[in-house]
Amino acid sequence: MRQEWLGLAVIAVLGFIIMASLRPAFLTPFNLFVLLSTFALAALIALGQMITLAVGQLNLSLGSIGGLVAVSFAGMMDVWHWSAAPSFVAGLALGALAGALNGILIAQFQLSAFIVTLATLAMFKGLNLALTKAQPFYDIDKIVSTFGNASLIGPIPAVLIPTVIATAVVAYILYRLPAGRQILAVGGNSSASELSGISIKRAIVTAHVMSGVLAGLAGMVAVARLQLGQPTIGEDWLISSFAAPVIGGVALTGGHVSIVGTLLAVVIVALITQGLVLFTIDPFYVQLVLGGLILLAVGLNSLRSLLPVGYSLP
Amino acid sequence: MTLALELQGIVKSFPGVVALDGVSLAVERGSIHALIGENGAGKSTLIKIVTGVHRANSGTIKIDDRVVHFASPRDASREGIGVVHQERNLIPRFSVAENIVLDRIAAKTFAPIDYAEIYSLGKQWLQPLELDLDVRRPVSSLTTAQAQMVEIARALSLQSRVLVLDEPTASLTSHETEALFRVLRQLRDQGVAIILVSHKLEEIESLCDSVTVLRDGRNATASGPLRGYDRAALVRAMVGRDFALEQVGRGGFAAAASSESPALELDGVATSLGHSGINLSVGRGEIVGLYGLVGAGRTELAKSIIGLHAIVEGELRVNGQPVRIRDVNTALHRYSIGYVSEDRKAEGVILMHSVLANAGITIWAKLRGALRLLADSRIGKSVDPLLRQLDVKAASRNTAVRNLSGGNQQKVSIAKWLAAGVEILIVDEPSVGVDIRTKAYLHQLIMNLADQGTAILLISSDLPEMVALADRILLMKDFRLVGELVNDKDYAKVSADIMSRIQVVDTVTQRR
Hints:
By secondary structure, chain A is an all-alpha fold.
């Protein structure tokens, strides 16, 4: 079977080559470092949304969770003088808790994911602002700020490490663990899953917990990169969190994800963003381009689904 | 003989309805037991109680003489009850093998999945069904029939001691049906108790050992051997009175002039889906059958005619005039073509909406009053006579269609086209999952429509239905028309003729 992400891989490689040949500045180590750091953060955000799409839902509060965890993480180090490690663990736990709240409200009370996460988006943001009074936490652990700027080898940033680990864990859970297969099964056909003895509620809660953890992790990576606990972290995640999975071929109706496709889509989005900068086009056009890409991807997907079973686009 | 499954005094009520009122059922080990009754008699509810989907209000369930309580479907499958529901219950993007062993995946959380083991298990349980399928294929790429066989394999994989099959042959070809029956007989000989829900009495006669008939939520007969019932007796038990099985004939439509051009004509039509060289014509008052195996391209052709898929070559003519139909709106409002979908739940009706809203949906544009407003009373005035004529059984016309039985949903799905007064009606598998009384009713309805001058293109995989209704039968195979025959209503002759022409490998062996 032909891999569905092949087209995306071609686009990503072509984009890379075009940028490199038109703008030699693109290949400078510094630029590659920035590009990969952007990728590291955007990939975590995309995976966080992908996992709720897998179960057939969405998480509008993703950025809001990320922001709350980010300021809490920084606040624990600044105000309580905790070191990085316990703050990090507490941050992951907070993300999981926020995701669990979403999941339990949706599954237990059979509410719409859209409304629940819209409400919690506001709540988490409100909590964030109440904690910070909209002022950043500056005094974070040195390890964190060093990590945020460190490179492993050459242009490869250290912040790629959490992304690589998170991707491997998500892939392992979705493809190898029954818990992950249950998420995809419920997304694919919830009544069939229920009749096979799969707990729909548990699958929904698991997906939202994973989404919350990924959002929290992304928030803390953002703190490391910015070198401070900025309350506005997460505000601009929403559109890109949907853009990458949708472009990457994740079914919005649930039951099907493509991790490679999603990551390639993150690369493509990052290349386009960079491209606009390198070609000195107003960066405010990024949103316009992103929105257009989402529509294009959705259009291509629906074109594909119009064809009867057994047919594929040439 | 020991009873594998015994139900006593099962009562189940839903808000406003008593679905089951003291039903009993006894199924012996190593037997195939038919559970029959009209739509709405309570078969589905009973099946759902046996398989742990619903809980009875009162009554007992015994397995091997032991009283059991099912709180969930998993409890039932743990007690060895396997089920193949009427609707497909598969995870579309998962592989065949993974769907077969889904229950194992449901039972664990963290133990890593061994795909090699899953594939070999999948193969193992597909083998007895003689289905040559790559177990790694996603089930979304399978035909309905193949998907159903996968579900049967899943039920087998649970090594069920009681296997429940709800209308298993509704979408199977005769070859697939035979393969399935062979497997069921083997399972019976191994001591499995099988409960078969079916509307096809021929099937029941050839396969089953014992029978329970339900009517209006009660036992019309207690469980007993099938011997001693002839077909008429079964029908009597189901319907509660003598019922004429034979169809009333057609009055016949007097064509105005033989020179009149056909209502619908396809001339050398090819579609974007792969049909090619399709020539057919349907005159006013004529019923033309389109027969073929599942996957032959009949539904796809129908959808191309109403504008859902592009016609890329040839000409489509309505009343002799060449037309281009780009969407269903044009098909209905400009050319008066209606299409009754085979998939009534997904395409025929809007389950959440009322009977009235469903039946009137095609004439909203016509009925708009002042300020383009739509009043229920106006819709009701046009639709009520039809609902009465079709004998749609619903608490009121404001009842959600979801709450109607399958047969009544189908009537609503047809009613909306009658409301629109279409001149050309394409009817796709009108009686799948419909009881015999409703089926006879639908047949009469189709014939009456033809008698009134409607041109009807009938798609059906039910050969007796085809022979009963069609004037001419067109045969379709692999998206082409491969033959045409005039139907002289002689079932044996027509079926032999058809089978030889579409060259199915197997012979028709459903009657034994």
